[in-house]
Amino acid sequence: MEVLQAITTRRSVRAYASRPLPADVVQRMCCALRFAPSACNYQPWHFIFVTDPELRREVAQASYGQTWMAEAPVIVAACGFPRQAYQTMGGRYDSAAIDVAIALDHLTLAAVSEGLGTCWVGAFDEDRVTRLLKVPAEARVVALTPLGYPASPGLNHPLDGSQRKSPHQIFSVNHYGNRFTGERLD
Questions:
Q1: Distance between CA atoms of 98 and 80, rounded to whole angstroms?
Q2: Domains: count for the chain
Q3: Is residue 162 part of a domain?
Q4: What digits encode the pLDDT tens for the residues 147-182?
Q5: What is the pLDDT of residues 32-66, one digit of tens each?
Q6: What is the DSSP secondary-structure string of 30-51?
Q7: Cβ-Cβ contacts under 8 Å for 102 (sequence gap 6 or more)
Q8: Does a structural domain hold residue 129?
Q9: Which of 116, 89, 91 is nearest to 102 (CA)?
Q10: Which CATH number goes with the domain that contains 12?
Q11: What is the average pLDDT across 7-18?
């Protein structure tokens, strides 16, 4: 699958089949996470693959009752280490959350190319998830995603763009508000 096809076909999946993930697929998902870029290549992250069914249920409950998450054979907890990250991103903050987000995005795109589903979850009780997964104090749980085969096959068809903002609403040239026409950028 081409990258743009993966981008336009990725969906937030909230219903998963009980089908386990083959080892080679898991390895490719790990590769997608591992080779993601990070500021100064510091790689201030750690990813927990939650496979135990009871622990998945507890993590889903800690995600404000989003119990559908536990249907997936894996929940990935993406953790960042702020003190190990580039410290002056934009002159103001560390890069850990952004670095982790980039890696998790790589995972979501690699997943769709394998016929898997994901759903970026940012609504969770971080303290509770941290305790459940025994995350060390120096790390932050940035986001979660279930990872598995969608319960309803055929979700992966390209978006037509009708549910996205129009290009003139989100692109400018040189200065905010200078309309981008979609022509060459010279």
A1: 9
A2: 1
A3: no
A4: 999 998 765 556 667 777 888 888 888 899 888 877
A5: 999 999 999 999 999 999 999 999 999 999 999 99
A6: HHHHHT---GGG---EEEEEE-
A7: 36, 37, 38
A8: yes
A9: 89
A10: 3.40.109.10
A11: 92
> Under the phi-then-psi rule, with left for phi > 0, alpha for psi from -120 to 50, and beta for the rest, what region is 80?
beta
Residue 164 covered by a domain: no
Q: What is the residue range of 95's domain?
A: 3-153
Q: DSSP string spanning 146-186? A: EEE-BSSTT------STTS--HHHH-BSSSTT-B--SS---
Q: Are 134 and 46 in contact (CB under 8 A)?
A: no
Sheet holding 45-50, edge to edge: 45-50, 74-80, 140-148, 117-118
Q: How far is residue 103's CA from residue 48's CA, in Å, rounded to a whole number?
A: 13
Q: pLDDT confidence of 141, banded at 50, 70, 90?
A: very high
CA-based diameter of the chain, in Å? 56
168 occurs within a structural domain: no
By percentage, how much of the chain surpasses pLDDT 90?
A: 74
Whether residue 9 is predicted with pLDDT greater than 80 in this model: the reply is: yes
Question: Which residue carries 């940035």 as its tokens?
Answer: 142
Provide the angle, in degrees to the nearest 10, between the axes of the packed helices 23-34 and 96-113.
Answer: 150
Q: Distances in Å between the alpha carbon of 118 and those of 41, 107, 159?
A: 25, 9, 16
